[in-house]
Amino acid sequence: MLILGIETSCDETSAAVVRDGRFILSNVVASQIEIHRRYGGVFPEIASRQHILSIIPVIEEAIEKAQVTWDDLNGVAVTYGPGLAGSLLVGVNVAKAIAWARGLPIIGINHIEAHIYANWLVGEPPSDFPLLCLVVSGGHTSLFVMRDHGEYEELGHTLDDAAGEAFDKIARLLGLGFPGGPAIEQEAKYGNPEAFNFPRAWLKGTYNFSFSGLKTAVLREIQRYGEGISLKPGVKLPSSVPVADLAASFQEAVVDVLVEKTRQAALDYKVKEVLLAGGVAANSLLRERMKAAVPVPVRWPPPELCTDNAAMVAAAGYFNMIKGLRSGWDLDVVPNLKLGTRR
Question: pTM higher than 0.70 for the full model?
């Protein structure tokens, strides 16, 4: 079964063709990072306009690279939430037009679920359920028990900033640029993770997360080095500010909480494997610590499949479609979509 996947939830325009939910024939991504870097984050209106310009060429390139024809496709999968409303609308409307014109079934895909299914695109797939899924990205930090394909129980989520959002904000404060995750990780290599004892929000008795207090603690530490320090995006801090130590200590605090919450949930729910998903899953420290701490196998996608892409959407589409799920022509975007709900 060949599925065309389309992803436009934020600032990546992507299309992919995937066979049987596991084998990538093509995965084309048009990034907007350089466009949004000047703002220190994603500017929603600009993102949606750029999707309009990129979507058709990206889809055509995905079909060409996969060496298939439109007649070879068995369905169209598209992200319909969560995400930026304007960006989602571009992908959903184009997907509906293609499905209508070609007589293909369409399936709306939850962006969070798509990130989880990136783990089915590499090597042997997870062998047995239940699985524990840690989704960590710019917009989401959540723990789910996955009991079967399409069956999820949310154990906890962030009460404020997502982990990736915290990385972006701290990178801006430290003058490291956008996106923040790779910038913090690179700078942290030169720092001492024990230089600052930043707070960890354990929220005992829950699997929830909170990173806003940590963000504030880093800000106050920076301000200790002098009045009038500019915290504007892209402005380098004075050499007196130990940027590498701050980055390393911040990263250490985030990883500590993510790993410990996941370790405890893996024990409590007796899962078979732990799956990492989302942009922050590309962080090498998180991967190393998780593998060492969790008592069951841990898997994660390669970095190019951790960030937003359409191959993961197509994979999720396949596993939804073989269960008989389809979307109607009234499929609409749901910017605040929760995993487990369906349209």
Answer: yes
Given 3-state DSSP classes, what are the helix, strand and coil percentages for the chain, each rounded to the nearest 5? 45, 20, 40
Per CATH, 2-122+304-321 and 131-300 having the same topology is answered yes
Structure-block tokens of residue 111 = 């962006």
Report the alpha-carbon distance of residue 271 to residue 279 in Å, rounded: 23
Place of tokens 């005992």: 204
User: CA 307, CA 37: separation in Å to the nearest integer?
Assistant: 16
- Domain ranges in the chain are 2-122+304-321, 131-300
Averaged over successive runs of 10 residues, the pLDDT of the chain (343 residues) comes to 96 95 96 63 76 95 98 98 96 98 97 97 90 92 96 96 92 87 95 96 96 94 73 66 96 98 97 96 97 96 95 98 95 93 59
What confidence score (pLDDT) does residue 32 get?
Answer: 64
Q: State how far the Cα of 201 lies from the Cα of 211, in Å rounded to an integer.
A: 7
Structure tokens at 72: 């070879």
Fold classification of 2-122+304-321 is Nucleotidyltransferase; domain 5 (3.30.420)
Residue 211: the pLDDT is 96
Residue type, 312: M
Sorted by sequence, the CB contacts under 8 Å of residue 2 that are 6+ apart come out as 17, 18, 19, 25, 66, 68, 72, 73, 74
DSSP state string for 253-275? HHHHHHHHHHHHHHHHTT-SEEE
pLDDT of residue 341: 64
Token output for 181: 């995750």
Q: What is the pLDDT of residue 44?
A: 73
Can you tell me the distance from the alpha carbon of 170 to that of 180, in angstroms, rounded to the nearest whole number?
7
Q: The domain 131-300: what is its CATH number? A: 3.30.420.40
Please report, to the nearest 10 degrees, the dihedral formed by the alpha carbons of residues 293, 154, 151, 111 taken in order.
Answer: -90
Residues in the chain: 343
**Contact present, 92 and 331 (Cβ < 8 Å):** yes
Task: Tell me the one-letter amino acid at 54.
Answer: S
- pLDDT for position 230: 56
pLDDT of residue 233: 56
41 SS3 class: coil
